[in-house]
């Protein structure tokens, strides 16, 4: 599977369902990069329209490209090499299309969608039949805003625990790792 991952900071919903931009966090940059690298994701896009946030991401990524940081922890630089900040979902789609020579199927995740298209096995089968790359989007804050969902061609079913009492609010880092394991794990 040719998978690309996007951590979307805009367009996002806040607690009231309003359109917002969320903050980029250092943990998301590092931990999600490591999960992506472990499972063979081709590129990890951090999507934010704010120059200052993209500059922060570039600064963090640049630190690990320096000789002393790379010598201290080469595995970290290896993982972070697949990450990049972009200003929009559309920019990431354009970059994937340039790399792959075709537009990716856009899949989204979320615990509170009204309907779903299937689980990861269904998505994998669809991608095999269509022979397409996939751009899998994860939301921050209270989830992807309807503006982002309009781009989706596939809505993944949520992660649900058999032991759950209805609580379902995983960190995005945890959700990414679980979905990647379901897509690529044994």
Describe the fold and architecture:
The protein has a single domain (3-184), classed as 3-Layer(aba) Sandwich (Alpha/beta knot), CATH 3.40.1280.10. Helices cover 44% and strands 16% of the residues. It has eight helices and eight strands. The protein has helices at 26-39, 51-65, 67-72, 74-80, 89-100, 120-130, 146-149, 172-184, and strands at residues 3-8, 12-13, 19-20, 44-47, 83-86, 105-108, 134-139, 154-155. Helix 1 (26-39) packs parallel to helix 8 (172-184).
What order do the helices and strands come in, and which of them pair?
Blueprint: E1 3-8, E2 12-13, E3 19-20, H1 26-39, E4 44-47, H2 51-65, H3 67-72, H4 74-80, E5 83-86, H5 89-100, E6 105-108, H6 120-130, E7 134-139, H7 146-149, E8 154-155, H8 172-184
Helix pairs in contact: 1-4, 1-8
**SSE sequence, one letter per element:** EEEHEHHHEHEHEHEH
Strand residue percentage: 15-25%
Uncertain residue ranges? 67-71
Shape: globular
Sheet having the most strands:
6 strands, parallel
Mean pLDDT, nearest integer? 91
Structural class: alpha/beta
Cα-based radius of gyration, to the nearest Å: 16 Å
What is the architecture at the second tier of CATH? 3-Layer(aba) Sandwich
């Amino acid at each position: 599977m040719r998978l690309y991952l996007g951590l979307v900071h805009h367009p996002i919903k806040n607690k009231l369902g309003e359109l917002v931009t969320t903050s980029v966090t250092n943990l998301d940059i590092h931990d999600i990069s490591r999960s992506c690298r472990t499972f063979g994701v081709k590129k990890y896009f951090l999507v934010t329209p704010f120059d200052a946030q993209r500059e922060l991401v570039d600064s963090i990524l640049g630190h690990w490209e320096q000789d002393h940081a790379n010598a201290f922890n080469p595995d970290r630089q290896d993982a972070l090499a697949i990450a990049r900040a972009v200003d929009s979902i559309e920019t990431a789609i354009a970059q994937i299309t340039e790399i792959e020579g075709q537009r990716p199927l856009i899949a989204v995740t979320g615990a509170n969608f009204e309907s779903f298209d299937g689980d990861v096995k269904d998505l994998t089968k669809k991608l095999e039949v269509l022979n397409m790359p996939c751009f899998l989007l994860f939301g921050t804050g209270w989830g992807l805003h309807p503006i982002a969902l309009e781009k989706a061609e596939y809505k993944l079913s949520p992660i649900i625990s058999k032991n759950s009492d209805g609580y379902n609010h995983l960190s995005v880092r945890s959700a990414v790792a679980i979905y990647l394991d379901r897509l690529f794990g044994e």
